[in-house]
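Morning run. Coffee first, then this:
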Amino acid sequence: MEHPVVLEERKDQTAILTLNRPEVMNSFNFAMLRGLQEKIDALRFDPDIRVVIITGAGDKAFCAGADLKERATLSDIQVKEFIFTIRNLFTAVEYLPKPVIAAVNGVALGGGTELALACDIRMAASSATMGLTETRLAIIPGAGGTQRLPRLVGRGKAKELIFTGRRVGADEALQIGLVNKVVAPEKLMEACLEMAAMICETGPIAIQQAKYAINYGLETDLHTGLAIESNAYWITIPTEDRLEGLAAFREKRKPDYKGK
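And here it is:
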């Protein structure tokens, strides 16, 4: 029996999804793309899960991108299908109505960096290396890298990294804003779970609407973005959670949010 290519573990209100092909540095084949898509689709409507963490099996790689051995066997049409599938998957990750944390535990190249870019928060082990290296294979990033990287680190730095295909270490990734935090490898998951726990203390509907406002507002002009923020705020006003937050503040206790 084949081992599952995507593992799921639950800790409190956090789901940990692990890309499980360590023998090939957790590179994406069709099976792993579809396995991760199934997990994301299921978590979208799971009220018990507030935060998702994505990481790679083993201590060497987060994800080394596409499985080039499989790629060499694909026809041009199948390559188009692969790119279509991976691009839609990463968009699903980006717009999942729950925060997604990338625990970059090692090498993250090509599609691996693009997966991290689609996540909301990126935490990296000090041993991690990242890069969009596709131009060195005479192709370009095809799963959102040309769009998400410049939005995160700026146009000039993104062009430099994509045009050269250069890899960056964890410290440089932190310096340019590619990752939020760098920790020792053995502390990575602990740091991600601490971040998840802090998020889980907040109002679930508020988090959904904040993510919505940020994701959609950034793609518009300021005037339209402020309107999106305003509409997202209105959704939180009639909720039980908002009243619970006010009551907890008044009573000097921790709020008990229900996502209602």
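The chain has two domains: 6-200, 204-251. Good start to the day.
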